[in-house]
Amino acid sequence: MQSHDTQKILANLKKARGMIDKLTSMVESDEYCVDVASQINATVGLLKSANLTLLESHLACCGPKFLNAKDETTKDAFIKELVRARNVSSK
After folding, report:
1. Are 67 and 73 in contact (CB under 8 A)?
2. Backbone dihedral angles phi then psi of residue 46, each to the nearest 5 degrees
3. Taking the complete model, does pTM exceed 0.70, yes or no?
4. How many helices (H) and strands (E) does the chain have?
5. pLDDT, tens only, 13-69
6. How far apart are CA 43 and CA 71, in angstroms?
7. Where residue 4 falls among pLDDT bands split at 50, 70, 90?
């Protein structure tokens, strides 16, 4: 993973952690449902952004090695891995 991506991913994960703590407090305090839902969506957005950055970094760092491999099995496995990761992240 590229170091600038690592910093971006960590920042988003730390923000999401803080937001989850806030969400827990909001639910425990019986705050307005739409306000809680809005914060949940913001947290999900941070996690999706971290995931996308991670997958882009993986493609940039590891992609050339695997896609230029002489072994077709290695190439196919990498492609399937990316498709699987993308399918999971889009749910």
Report:
1. no
2. -65, -45
3. yes
4. 3, 0
5. 999 999 999 999 999 999 999 999 999 999 999 999 999 999 999 999 989 999 999
6. 40
7. confident
The CA distance from 12 to 37, in Å, is 19
Q: Are 63 and 80 in contact (CB under 8 A)?
A: no
* Whole-number Å distance between alpha carbons of 44 and 42: 5
Residue with tokens 């449902």: 33
| Residue found under tokens 């090695």 | 65
Q: Which two tokens stand for residue 4?
A: 């600038």
* Per-residue tokens: 16: 């999401």
- Which domains, from first to last, does the chain contain? 3-89 (1.20.58.1000)
